[in-house]
Automatic annotation (TrEMBL):
<keyword id="KW-0678">Repressor</keyword>
<dbReference type="InterPro" id="IPR002571">
    <property type="entry name" value="HrcA"/>
</dbReference>
<keyword id="KW-0346">Stress response</keyword>
<feature type="domain" description="Heat-inducible transcription repressor HrcA C-terminal">
    <location>
        <begin position="110"/>
        <end position="332"/>
    </location>
</feature>
<dbReference type="GO" id="GO:0003677">
    <property type="term" value="F:DNA binding"/>
</dbReference>
<protein>
    <recommendedName>
        <fullName>Heat-inducible transcription repressor HrcA</fullName>
    </recommendedName>
</protein>
<dbReference type="GO" id="GO:0045892">
    <property type="term" value="P:negative regulation of DNA-templated transcription"/>
</dbReference>
<keyword id="KW-0805">Transcription regulation</keyword>
<dbReference type="InterPro" id="IPR036390">
    <property type="entry name" value="WH_DNA-bd_sf"/>
</dbReference>
<keyword id="KW-0804">Transcription</keyword>
<dbReference type="Pfam" id="PF01628">
    <property type="entry name" value="HrcA"/>
</dbReference>
<dbReference type="InterPro" id="IPR036388">
    <property type="entry name" value="WH-like_DNA-bd_sf"/>
</dbReference>
<comment type="function">
    <text>Negative regulator of class I heat shock genes (grpE-dnaK-dnaJ and groELS operons). Prevents heat-shock induction of these operons.</text>
</comment>
<comment type="similarity">
    <text>Belongs to the HrcA family.</text>
</comment>
<dbReference type="InterPro" id="IPR029016">
    <property type="entry name" value="GAF-like_dom_sf"/>
</dbReference>
<dbReference type="InterPro" id="IPR021153">
    <property type="entry name" value="HrcA_C"/>
</dbReference>
Length: 347
């Protein structure tokens, strides 16, 4: 459905529409004409308000739930409100301090991103999300820990102290001594390289037959490099915090929607693809309900803003996921401030 331009609504319709949306976003309940008529600034009778609300419903901006005589905004109505009528409120000094508190220049950047996301989640009462800049770790040490005859735990230690483990299927005939040989070879040859550089170096050594490894140990090294490289390419680098905020007293009657949203949050690859669409822009993006196919069932909204690295390029996205009934005027500036703060940290 095409969205009615705000300019096509007369003053009376705009006033009634604004009251309905703001009341719904505040309470989550449909709004009736009697409630609106008590607002002195409108000076409209309940009958006049009902007529205006009926007109807004016919335009696809309001809807009437079967169980209530009141109206609530549709997703189309919310989009019109956010784009053309909303008056954003800048984050308070307390909110800014809460977001900045966890952002320290020392320590892994992931810790700062996680802290900012947790603060954003708590302030917005939504799930906080952040896409971490994709960085290839610089390697320091490798290890293989046998699990059984067919599998081993491949351990990668980065120069920043990070440790990653992967379960690796072993080639036939691999012995514990071969595991040690392969680990020592990889640590000696590839320390100080990224995974991509290590893979290229391994290929060159295999081509020139300069590798001193036998067939089984050589295959083990190849598999170790491959499993980390493949995982790094496919794994969404996404931090999600505050899913519990999505379950409150107001969701008791809508548990199925919440369940679907929580399941969608588990599918980090799908959410990462959604957020990647915000990487190309320079401003905060808002996805409302079924505007994005991923959240068509749960009827959720996403507010996401890109943040930049030291060279000024966009390197990630931070935002929130929550019900369509959220305080857009408060949360959008909060997300935008978090993105700006992260950009300053990354410089």
């Amino acid at each position: 459905m095409s969205i009615t331009p705000i300019s096509e609504l007369n003053d009376r319709a705009r006033d009634v529409f604004r009251v309905v949306v703001e009341s719904y976003l505040g309470t989550g309940l449909p709004v009736g004409s009697r409630t609106i008529s008590k607002i002195a600034s409108l000076s409209l009778s309940p009958a006049s308000i009902r007529n205006v609300m009926q007109d807004l419903e016919e335009l696809g901006l309001l809807a009437a739930p079967h169980t209530s005589a009141g109206r609530m905004p549709t997703e189309t109505g919310l989009r019109l409100f956010v784009d053309g009528m909303m008056q954003a409120a800048a984050p308070s000094a307390e909110e800014r301090r809460a977001i900045e508190a966890g952002l320290v220049e020392s320590g892994p950047i992931e810790e700062a991103l996680s802290a900012a996301t947790a603060a954003l989640s708590g302030l917005s009462a939504c799930a906080g999300i952040v896409m971490v800049p994709r960085r290839e770790p610089v390697l320091r040490q490798f290890g293989f820990v046998p699990l059984n005859d067919r599998q081993a735990l491949a351990v990668l230690v980065g120069q920043d102290g990070s440790v990653e483990n992967r379960v690796l299927d072993l080639p036939p005939g691999v012995t514990p001594s071969m595991l040690n040989e392969a680990a020592n070879f990889m640590s000696a040859r590839f320390a100080g390289m990224t995974l991509r550089q290590a893979g290229d170096q391994l290929s060159r050594e295999m081509e020139t037959e300069r590798s001193l490894l036998d067939g089984a140990a050589r295959e083990l090294v190849e598999r170790g490099i491959a499993i980390w490289s493949h995982d790094a390419d496919d794994r969404p680098v996404l931090i999600v915090r505050g899913q519990a905020h999505l379950i409150d007293d107001g969701t008791a009657a809508d548990l199925e929607r919440v369940r679907q949203l929580l399941e969608q949050l588990e599918g980090k690859q799908e959410i990462s693809r959604l957020l990647e669409s915000a990487l190309a822009g320079s401003a905060t993006k808002i996805f409302i309900g079924s505007e994005n196919k991923l959240f068509s069932l749960s009827g959720s909204s996403v507010i996401a803003a890109p943040y930049r690295g030291a060279d000024g390029r966009v390197v990630g996205v931070v935002g929130v996921i929550g019900p369509t009934r959220l305080n857009y005027a408060r949360v959008i500036p909060m997300v935008d401030f978090t993105a700006q703060t992260l950009s300053r940290l990354m410089r």
